[in-house]
Structures are given as C-alpha cells and as structure tokens.
Amino acid sequence: MTEVNIQVWAVDALGALAHETRLAVFRMLVTAGPDGMIAGTIAESAKVPPSTMSHHLATLERAGLVQSERESRLIHYRADYEGMSRLLTFLMKDCCQGAPDMCADIFASISCNG
Amino acid sequence: MTEVNIQVWAVDALGALAHETRLAVFRMLVTAGPDGMIAGTIAESAKVPPSTMSHHLATLERAGLVQSERESRLIHYRADYEGMSRLLTFLMKDCCQGAPDMCADIFASISCNG
DNA sequence: ACCATAATTCCAGAAATTTCGAAATATTGG
DNA sequence: CCAATATTTCGAAATTTCTGGAATTATGGT
Question: Taking every annotated instance into account, which residue ranges of this chain make up the domain HTH arsR-type (chains A, B) (predicted)?
C-alpha cells in the first residue's frame, strides 16, 4: 500500500471511529475478544435500533476495523486487530520521527498490562 | 478525566483527524517538530484557501491536537504531542486487554526508529 | 494616522452523515 | 411451503460538516 493510499484509508478508519456509538461498539468488540458479539446483542447493548446499528457496523467493516461472519441466523462481529494495528502503527510512525520521546512515553504508559 | 469523558473527547480528536486535509496537516506539523509552521505556509502547502485552513486548524486545536501561538503578525501552529499521546494511549488500552499480542506487534513494527 | 500584511470570523450554500421505520433478504424449524 | 427470527437494505428527513468569498481583527512599518 503506497503512502498516499494508506493515508486515504486512515481517514476512513478514523472517521469510522469518530462517532460515539461506533467507538463504544468497537471498544466493546476489542474487549470481547476473538469470539466477538452477535449483531442483535450489540444493538441492544448500545441501545440503538438494529437498523441503525447495522449501518454503523457496515461503516466499521468497510474501514477494515471489524469483520463479520454469519453463523446460521446470527451474524458475529469481531474486531479486526490487524486493521487496528495498521491504524495505530500509521499514527505512530510520524510521531516517532517528529517526537522521538513520545513513543517511549506511550509505551511506558501502557506496557501492555493495562 | 473520567472514562466516559475521555471517550467523548476521543470522538472529537478522531473526528478532527478524519479528514484528508486535516490529517495531512497534522502529520506535517508532527514532522515539522516543536517550531511548527506558520498558518499561511500551512494553507499554501495544503493548497487550500487561508479561510478554509483556518477552520481546519481551529478544529484540530479544539480537539487538543495542535497548539497555536502568535508571534507578531504570524501565528505558529505546532502539534500537541500530549494530546496525541493521550489519544494513542486511549486507543491502545482496550486493544492490549482484548488482544495482548497486538501491542507487542505494534511496538515491534515501530521500535521508535521509523 | 494610514496602509499593507496575516489571519480569523461571518455567512450561507453545498455536500456528507446520521437516523430509523418499513420493506426485503436469509436462515431454520415445523 | 409457511411462519418466525435475525439482519440488512431502502428511502427520505434531520442534522452536521465542509467550503470559501467577503468582512473583520490584529500587528507592524512609514
């Protein structure tokens, strides 16, 4: 993926997360782990009509941040860790160049333990 | 900042970056370093009218991603590394819990050297 | 005081996003 | 095949965002 294209994609991904409901859903899915959640349950948890949630989930999926898989009548949605990783890496790349200390700070503040 | 409030802020910050021009400008400012850039130069570089750019810069500043400072007739804009750090940390927190391996992958792929 | 420069704010039209009920599609069970 | 359930797609109104010319504010030089 060329530099210009990844930036176009990043705008989409950021836009997908730039919405109260969608960000909440995405975080929920990340926390839910690899099994993900059923579409209906997601809508119920977020207190929005199924139709509305369907649009939001489609937006997240188009942006490559979630994946869906049908299992009989239910549709499972799970976070796409690779997409998220790509986004975070993209955002950090420039920061690490412009502000060498910043990445270190972030690494320290997270340390992958919470 | 409470959990719910940081998420509200995060939506704003993500929305600020979810625009082709604004993302390009933000990355430019990060790369430019602590001295930042003059408003007019930014508009010129991005090939948008000063008025339009002023709106975009205000959006980024409201979101806490850039800072401005007047120096005589010129206004310097610089990336707000603390804001960016807060956003990246926020996004990573959930990921590190839901996908313990993911943060490690990101750390490896960056390693703060480019 | 006046003029020139730099940038913002005002304004309003254009474009995109958000919302959700109703209708359509997909799947299973009887 | 028919009914029930899960979800998406359609459609259209409401809201928000984006854009940029014109007017305004701020600063410095002569």
Answer: 2-99
CA of A48 to C1' of D3 (A): 27
Read off the tokens for B58.
């205000």
Q: Which residues contact A69 (CB under 8 A, 6 or more apart)?
A: A75, A76, A78
Q: Residue B12 contacts by C-beta under 8 Å, 6 or more apart in sequence?
A: A18, B62, B63
| Contact flag B11-A31 (C-beta cutoff 8 Å) | no
Architecture of the A3-108 domain: Orthogonal Bundle (1.10)
Q: Where are the domains of chain A?
A: 3-108
pLDDT per residue of chain A (114 residues) written in tens, 0 to 9: 788 789 999 999 999 999 999 999 999 999 999 999 999 999 999 999 999 999 999 999 999 999 999 999 999 999 999 999 999 999 998 877 878 787 787 777 776 544
Does residue A19 sit at the B interface (CB-CB below 8 Å)?
yes
Q: How far is the CA of B51 from the C1' of C12 (A)?
A: 15
